[in-house]
Amino acid sequence: MAVLDAHGMIVMTNIAWRQYAMAYSPEPGQITPFCDIGVNYLEVAARGDTPQDNSHQALQGIRDVLSGKIEAFSLVYPCHTPEEQFWFTMTVTPLDWKGELGALVMHTDTTPRHHLSRR
Q: Gene3D superfamilies this protein is in (predicted)?
C-alpha cells in the first residue's frame, strides 16, 4: 500500500509495496522508479493510459477520492508478467494527510479468486 497526499504524491509506502517494486524493477536491486516515495502517482497513471490497460479508470477513481467526490474506489485489473498471469484489486480510500484529504492506495493480489471465478 501507498499513502498519497492531496496532490497524488506518494508520501509513504509499506514493505510489501517496496518488495513488489523491487522484484519487478527494470533495474535489479532498485525500486521501480515510478512507484517510490516522492513520485506523483497521478502523473504515472496518466502516462499509462492505453486501450490495453485500466490506467484512465484508475486515475479517475483516485482523483474522485482525493476530491471527496466518492468515498472509495475499487478496480480489478490484470497485471501479467511474461511467466505468469496475475490479477490485482486496487482499492483507494480517503485518508487525512497533514490536514488535507489524501488517499490510501492498496493493490491486493486476487489471482486465486480470479481463477476460482473462472471455473
A: PAS domain
Give Dmax over CA atoms of the chain in angstroms: 47
Buried b (16+ CB within 10 A) or exposed e, 27-55: eeeebbebbbeebebbebbeeeeeeeebb
- Model confidence over 68-93: pLDDT tens digits? 999 999 999 888 878 888 899 999 99
Sheet with 73-78, side-by-side order of all strands:
10-13, 2-4, 100-109, 87-97, 73-78
Q: Which CATH number fits domain 2-117: 3.20.20.70, 1.10.3470.10, 3.30.450.20, 3.40.50.1470?
A: 3.30.450.20
Judge whether 72 and 89 are in contact, CB under 8 Å. Answer: no
The grid coordinates of residue 115 equal: 481463477
pTM over 0.90: no
